[in-house]
Amino acid sequence: MKQRIVTAVIAASVFLPIVIYGRWPFLVLTYILATVGLFELIRMKRISLFSFPSIVSFLALWLFLYPYEHMINIWILVVGLFLLLIYTVISKNAFTFDDVAFMIVAVLYVGVGFYSFVQVREAGLSYIFYALFLIWATDSGAYFVGRAFGKRKLWEHISPNKTVEGAIGGVLCALVVVSVYEWLSPFAPSFLMLLIATVILSVFGQLGDLVESAFKRHYGVKDSGAILPGHGGILDRFDSLLFVLPILHLFYLIA
Questions:
Q1: Which of 3, 190, 203, 240 has the CB geometry, 3.0–4.6 Å to 230, for a possible disulfide?
Q2: How far apart, in whole angstroms, are the C-alpha atoms of residue 150 and residue 142?
Q3: Spatial contact of 109 and 41, defined as CB atoms under 8 Å apart
Q4: Domain that holds residue 97
């Protein structure tokens, strides 16, 4: 526990000032986080870091993350897809169609989440802190309510410690924290819509956590990485945000 707290304090002391400042340091931070996240997925799949598919995937991710206009990002992924498909022929199916699908989904999973991180930051600090508070409240509420009242397993084969009661407690805790945040620093055009969005995002955040757990169970690893002592890898810490941020970005565009 002590190691987790020390790591969290150090990470927050680096992460939050850069998020607040924004601009190019924030973009650089996003690129670093996304790169490490993709590396963790590729390592789970046991594909060589210096192989042609890995190099193509990293290049596709880096190009995808840049805030282009006119949907250039999609065409970057299409080019990457074609290159990987061609490589299945060159490698005589040593690198298979299934491997291509994994690499493209990995780039999309990491890329869309961190691309949305940049876009939500551009929308304003209020939205970024809303997402951070929401995830923190959901995770904390799910943990403490689950420990105190949890009886029914939420998804035992994927994450044995999570309970239905904890999941509900996470949503309720998120609603309380977000309501206080809105009261102290109003930013939402409609309080009712904010509450509805909070419920949806809290649920998606918990689903993101379960998806990451499913990855790890499928590939037989405890943590996605070890870059954060006591916490695991980047994907272990950003699994919920990778689901929440794209939905929050969509809500912002619609509003």
A1: 3
A2: 9
A3: yes
A4: 1-254
